[in-house]
Each structure stands twice: as structure tokens, then as C-alpha cells.
Amino acid sequence: MATQTYWLADPDGVHAPADGAATRDEMAAAGWVLVDELRPSDQVWTYNEQVRGWSKFGRDILHVWEARGWVPSAPPLVEGDVGPVIDLPVPGAEPAAVPVPDSKPEPKTTEAASPSTSKKENDRA
């Protein structure tokens, strides 16, 4: 007999599947709430075995991320369990601005001159 899959929402409203009544009950004891159905706008917890990390995606774009190895899965119920939570961009969205480091080289200082005296003053001394 196949194990029944239940969908639950965490305290923040992000959904995850629970395979079997025992997992459902464990998640409910940790504050998750059983939901009847998922809406396209609902967020879903996913896990990627290759990167060993968790992320959340909208149900409406979940198929895009499933093709990249992200599968719906409940996150660890114990803080610090397997893998980090990874923030990934929405496919097709503009990438976040990445600060570009200043390309100007740092001014070089010589050990002979002190910051309070100029080279001319050092030559006169």
C-alpha cells in the first residue's frame, strides 16, 4: 500500500509535504498546520541533494526548479540539521545588483615618511 502524502504549512505559511501519518503528526507537533490544497501563490519548501541545501519557491514556478534538482521536502524540524537555507532568484527576474569593488589602487605609503610630514619636509631635515 502506498504511503499517503499530506501537505502542511509551517508557522510562516510555507508548505511542505509529509509522507505518511507519522511524519504528519511529528510536523503538527512542531507547529505545522495541515492544509487542504496548495494555491499557485503558495511557497513550498524544497531540498536539493546535490547542493545539500534548502530553499523556498512559489508553487507556480516549482516545475522550473524541480528540473534543476530541487524537490518539495519538509525542512529539518531541528535547528542546525542538514544543510543551509539558500536564497535563489526567481527564474526570469532581474538579478540583484552586485557591488563592484573600486578599481583604483590604494595609495602606497613609504615607511620613511610619516603621515604628518611631507616629502619636502623630510628632504630639508
UniProtKB/TrEMBL annotation:
Q: Where is this region: Disordered?
A: 88-125
Q: Where is the composition biased (Low complexity)?
A: 89-101
Q: Please report the name of this protein according to its UniProt entry.
A: GYF domain-containing protein
Tell me which species this is from.
Actinoplanes palleronii
